Amino acid sequence: MTIPTPPATPSTSKRGLLRALLGFGVTATGMVVAADPAEAAIGSQPARRPGADGKRYGMLVDIRRCIGCQACTVSCSMENLPPLGQFRTTVLQYEVDTKVQGAPPAMVSLPRLCNHCDNPPCVPVCPVQATFQRTDGVVLVDNERCVGCGYCVQACPYDARFINHETQTADKCTFCEHRLEVGLLPACVESCVGGARKIGNLNDPASEVATLLREHKDDVKVLKPDLATRPHVFYIGLPEQFVSGIDGQAGVRVAAN
């Protein structure tokens, strides 16, 4: 069974909901908002705030090495302490129909997290500028400024954001920027038993991540490239069906081409 085509009706789609929320053109703060902020976000990003000088962080996930153990999910929760039942990163299990008669479906483990895009749709839709991007590419949330409106949650095409049940503000993966700043790896990378996750400075051609991206350039994929968000979480071994066909955080059965 193939992935069902998402409903195109504005009232049931994420983009339609976002348009309905913001389509009045003016927020409570008096800011003028485009009719379709998810689309208006691309190419109209606010100026980035200071980050690690000369660096552009990116993560590489090798699906072939991921065993679905959830060590990354647990270590992320231990490090960042989101509310019970909410996660900054997940590893979802999918069944892929191999279309081989008599053969069972293949299992694919797909790590998901914030993609720290170069054109993040979540940033310009924030009416109070609580969501911002640094010059090193890391997208963060100022929880003291966030009003919990949820616009950024709806704008994210990767379902990587949520409203924290305890703080009532937007929450997401931060690449563990507090660890990067002191020379440590993000919790999910450090705990990955299969070595499936790598992070590094893409501006440094000698970095491990930059080297691996060059060596596997023909196999590297990103999620939803057609949205032009320029995500900086890259995948090796990602089945083609997953590139544009994965929505939400629920597991689905995916048919082989």
From TrEMBL:
Domain 4Fe-4S ferredoxin-type per the UniProt entry, residue ranges: 57-86, 104-136, 137-166
Q: Which GO terms describe its molecular function?
A: 4 iron, 4 sulfur cluster binding; metal ion binding
Gene3D superfamilies linked: 3.30.70.20
Which SUPFAM superfamilies does this entry report, sorted A to Z? Answer: 4Fe-4S ferredoxins
Cleaved signal peptide residues? 1-34
Pfam families for the chain = Fer4_11 (PF13247)
Q: Which UniProt keywords apply?
A: 4Fe-4S, Iron, Iron-sulfur, Metal-binding, Signal
Please give the InterPro entries that the UniProt record associates with this protein.
4Fe4S_Fe-S-bd, 4Fe4S_Fe_S_CS, DsrO-like, ET_IronSulfur_Cluster-Binding
Tell me what this protein is called.
4Fe-4S dicluster domain-containing protein
Look up and give the organism this protein is from: Ottowia beijingensis
Taxonomic lineage: Bacteria, Pseudomonadati, Pseudomonadota, Betaproteobacteria, Burkholderiales
